[in-house]
């Protein structure tokens, strides 16, 4: 019998099952909201956290590729304003009913956009906060900007059982002004997000508000001389085909998904029909700050698990966010009351020149062969408070899958005495400082290299000891080891051995008798500095290793746990792997932790230039030779000499 993983072609895959992986549409979300509100245990006052497609399991994938129909089911997480806990639901769209409902009475829901705005309103109206601002010389409360950070879990008795926000504030001097230049230091308010109750005002005191204006808005910045136009043109149109949410380009095919928590998702990534990754997405982002001073020790925010990337996705602008010949996809997410919010042009799809793909000059024959490469890019940008995260999934003609995260926006700021910055921060302007911090991402990669039954191999390089076998001391070699259980696969990078990892399919051998494989290229592994036993360290325990490997389980979706707000880390990835299950020749999930270690520079303010991190999956014995060797020879005849003259003249 043919392997259904292997035989589904690009042409037949789109109508057969990729269409069923499209994100929920507005009509579907509306129908699901109605089903939940009509249920007697929920009702019309239900608050909606997330509503998303229930994605198929590996077994359901295999059945679909063998001809069965994928169910169009959904997941939802809901809560009640006057009741504790979160309900996790699965629903059938075709049957218009709730399939399962599980209540988690001690868990807290994610924080929604509307609630963040409510927290600011509540804090600005609180008499204690108004009085504390007055002592700092602030009379106009409309000029005060309050950022509602999640509160973590620090054992405060008055916060137990509540959904907590711990706030930080800044002062806006005039319209469109950069208020992050004016932190109101030492003033933090603790709010119950669900009830709107101000629980506590913590006034730590501190230096005066820095008042130097540091603008970035074009209304206030005199621009330098503009450069001449640089246009990206494709006179014959694009080379990709987007059928709904199913993509075909060159040898690649995949489906583009989206949900309110993860944001951008890619499904069923294949090269010429051969599967590589079943599902790829960011699963978490935690930003630990390094200052213990005042209330800053609580700054350890989980932007995906506590807020959700999806709802903070930007509507992109042609010619600004995206250049060239662009295809966009809109997305639809639920709001707190179940209504629909449509993000137009949320996902950008385009092609880019990727430079030289390969080249060789045969100097004896004086003959040169060169091929330029191109890549397909799927991207989106999310703004969470002061920070922008631009993510780019790219597919190359040499078989690589690349992920790049560009971080920009405004760095978090606090105040100091001019010329006396904290040891935990960099002074950006007199009296204004940016604290040391990290951005730690975790990608969740459901692997399917040439089908089902994958394993992970670790490779280390060692020097051969000087011996009769190695008399000149020049020998070194790479050694492979299969990681067989979850605990064995909780691994850190090691520059001393150039440690790397690859996912193999032991049941599929290549032309030299080795298992076909894809290698994880992981150049941005970061060392975390949080104490493992501290409150933030416990919640961020997934950052302790650079890879984790688990057998697929449909309810093990997030490295910091399903419910992250005010969590204690007890359902995190570090706890899950203690089951120490077999991961050899299984449907496996590869979790990769990477990121940015950010010692803030003055050049990072008022808006930080993009800094990048990421990883790639690259073929390692998946092909018998360079898969880009057959890319056609071409010369770009739109290229001209800068001083005049056409290409090839």
Rg over CA atoms, rounded to whole Å, is 26 Å
Q: Could you list the spans in which at least 5 consecutive residues all have pLDDT below 50?
A: 6-13
End-to-end span in angstroms? 58 Å
What share of the residues does DSSP label as strand, in percent?
35-45%
Helical fraction: 10-25%
Report the strand count.
Answer: 30
Largest sheet: 10 strands, antiparallel
Number of helices, where a helix is a run of at least 4 consecutive DSSP H or I residues = 9
Overall pLDDT: 95
Global shape: globular
- Structure class: mainly beta
Describe this structure in words.
The chain is mainly beta. It is 10% helix and 39% strand. It has 9 helices and 30 strands. The protein has helices at 4-7, 10-16, 26-38, 58-65, 113-125, 127-135, 303-307, 535-539, 573-576, and strands spanning 47-53, 73-79, 86-92, 97-104, 144-150, 164-171, 187-192, 197-203, 241-243, 246-249, 252-259, 263-271, 274-288, 300-302, 327-334, 340-362, 367-384, 387-396, 401-409, 414-415, 425-429, 432-435, 437-447, 455-463, 476-483, 500-509, 515-521, 547-551, 588-598, 608-619. Strands 15-16-17-18-19-30-27-26-24-25 form a 10-stranded antiparallel β-sheet. Strands 9, 10, 11, 12, 13, 14, 23, 28 and 29 form a 9-stranded antiparallel β-sheet that branches. A 4-stranded antiparallel β-sheet has the order 1-2-3-4, covered by helices on one side. A hairpin with a 5-residue loop joins strand 26 (500-509) and strand 27 (515-521). It starts with a helix and ends in a 30-residue tail after the last strand. The model is unreliable at 6-13 (pLDDT under 50). Its cofactor is Cu cation. InterPro entries: Cu_Am_ox_TPQ-bd (IPR049948), Cu_amine_oxidase (IPR000269), Cu_amine_oxidase_C (IPR015798), Cu_amine_oxidase_C_sf (IPR036460), Cu_amine_oxidase_N-reg (IPR016182), Cu_amine_oxidase_N3 (IPR015802). GO terms for molecular function: copper ion binding; primary methylamine oxidase activity; quinone binding. Belongs to the copper/topaquinone oxidase family. This is Amine oxidase.
């Amino acid at each position: 019998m043919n392997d259904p993983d292997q035989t589904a072609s690009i042409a037949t895959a789109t109508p057969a099952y990729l269409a069923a992986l499209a994100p929920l549409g507005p009509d579907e979300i509306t129908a699901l909201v109605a089903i939940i509100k009509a249920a007697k245990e929920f009702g019309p006052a239900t608050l909606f956290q997330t509503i998303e497609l229930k994605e198929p399991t590996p077994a359901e994938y295999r059945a679909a590729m063998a001809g069965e129909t994928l169910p169009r089911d959904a997941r939802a997480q809901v809560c009640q304003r006057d009741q504790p806990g979160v309900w996790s639901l699965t629903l059938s769209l075709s049957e218009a009913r709730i399939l399962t409902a599980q209540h988690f009475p001690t868990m807290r829901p994610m924080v929604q956009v509307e609630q963040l705005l409510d927290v600011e309103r509540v804090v600005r109206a609180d008499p204690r906060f108004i009085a504390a601002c007055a002592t700092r010389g602030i009379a106009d409360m409309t000029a005060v900007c309050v950022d509602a950070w999640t509160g973590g879990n620090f054992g405060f008795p008055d916060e137990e059982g509540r959904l907590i926000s711990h706030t930080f504030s800044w002062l806006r001097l005039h319209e469109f002004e950069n208020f992050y230049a004016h932190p109101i230091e030492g003033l933090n308010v603790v709010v119950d997000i669900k009830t709107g109750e101000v629980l506590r005002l913590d006034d730590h005191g501190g230096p005066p508000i820095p008042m130097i204006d540091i603008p970035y808005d074009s209304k206030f910045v005199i621009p330098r001389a503009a450069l001449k136009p640089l246009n990206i043109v494709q006179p014959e149109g694009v080379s990709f085909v987007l059928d709904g949410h199913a993509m075909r380009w060159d040898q690649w095919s995949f489906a583009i998904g989206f949900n309110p928590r993860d944001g951008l998702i890619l499904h069923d990534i294949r090269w010429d029909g051969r599967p590589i990754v079943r599902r790829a997405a960011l699963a978490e982002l935690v930003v630990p700050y390094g200052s213990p001073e005042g209330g800053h020790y609580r700054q350890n925010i989980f932007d995906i698990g506590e807020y959700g990337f999806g709802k903070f996705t930007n509507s992109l602008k042609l010619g600004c966010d995206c250049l060239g010949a662009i295809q966009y996809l809109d997305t639809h997410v639920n709001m707190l009351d179940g209504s629909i919010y449509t993000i137009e042009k949320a996902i950008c799809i385009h092609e880019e020149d990727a430079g030289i793909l390969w080249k060789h000059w045969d100097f004896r024959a004086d003959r040169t062969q060169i091929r330029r490469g191109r890549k397909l890019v799927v991207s989106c940008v999310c703004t969470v408070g002061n920070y922008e995260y631009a993510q780019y999934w790219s597919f190359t003609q040499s078989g690589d899958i690349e992920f790049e995260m560009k971080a920009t926006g405004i760095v978090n700021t606090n105040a100091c005495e001019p010329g006396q910055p904290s040891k935990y921060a960099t002074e950006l302007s007199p009296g204004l400082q940016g604290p040391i911090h990290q951005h730690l991402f975790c990608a969740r990669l459901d692997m399917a290299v040439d089908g089902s039954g994958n394993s992970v191999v670790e490779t280390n390089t060692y020097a051969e000891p000087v011996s009769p076998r190695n008399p000149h001391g020049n020998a070194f070699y790479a050694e492979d080891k299969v990681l067989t259980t979850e605990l064995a696969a909780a691994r850190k990078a090691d520059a001393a051995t150039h440690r790397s990892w690859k996912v193999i399919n032991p049941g599929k051998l290549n032309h030299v008798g080795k298992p076909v494989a894809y290698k994880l290229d992981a150049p941005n592994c970061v060392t975390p500095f949080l104490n493992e036993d501290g409150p933030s360290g416990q919640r961020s325990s997934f950052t302790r290793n650079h890879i984790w490997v688990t057998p697929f389980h449909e309810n093990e979706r997030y490295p910091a746990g399903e419910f992250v707000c005010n969590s204690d880390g007890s359902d995190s990835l570090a706890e899950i792997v203690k089951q120490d299950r077999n991961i050899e020749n299984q449907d496996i999930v590869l979790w990769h932790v990477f990121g940015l270690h950010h010692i803030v520079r003055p050049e990072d303010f008022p808006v930080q230039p993009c800094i990048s991190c990421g990883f790639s999956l690259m073929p390692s014995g998946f092909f018998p030779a360079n898969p880009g060797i057959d890319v056609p020879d071409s010369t770009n005849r739109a290229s001209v000499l800068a001083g005049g003259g056409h290409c090839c003249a």
